[in-house]
Amino acid sequence: MSREIRRTMPLLSMSIVMQLTELSARQIRYYEEHHLIEPHRTEGNRRMFSLNDVDILLEIKDYLEQGMNIAKIKKIFTKKQDPAVAEETNLSDTELRRVMREEMRQAQRMQKSSIRQGDLSRFY
């Protein structure tokens, strides 16, 4: 049996996944409602999760701890699933510089430092 087949096999119940991820059942169901995960259903309609599902839930948890919202997380997962979407959002160097200049101008107008300015300060 290949590694990928083992990782996609629905083996884990909701209670086990809750312990592994430290997420509540409600949170897990919420992510399922938003199609971030799709656990297998048994004949009795119980959710069964694969190791890949657990990895996705842990990744979602990490993104939330970083301050991202569900909409942003959905975009990230969409890009991962469809590489063509990711290619459309790539910016050229010129476009990236224009966006960064505009962000810094807006920050100066508001008399605040740009979020990116701290990241860029090590380069100049």
Automatic annotation (TrEMBL):
Pfam families: MerR_1
Chain ranges passing through the membrane: none
HTH merR-type domain residues: 11-79
Keywords: DNA-binding, Repressor, Transcription, Transcription regulation
Any coiled-coil regions, as ranges: none
Start and end residues of each stretch annotated as Disordered: 104-124
Superkingdom classification of source: Bacteria
Gene3D superfamilies cross-referenced by the UniProt entry: 1.10.1660.10
InterPro entries: DNA-bd_dom_put_sf, MerR-type_HTH_dom, MerR_fam
Keyword Transcription: yes
Name of protein: MerR family transcriptional regulator
Organism: Lysinibacillus contaminans
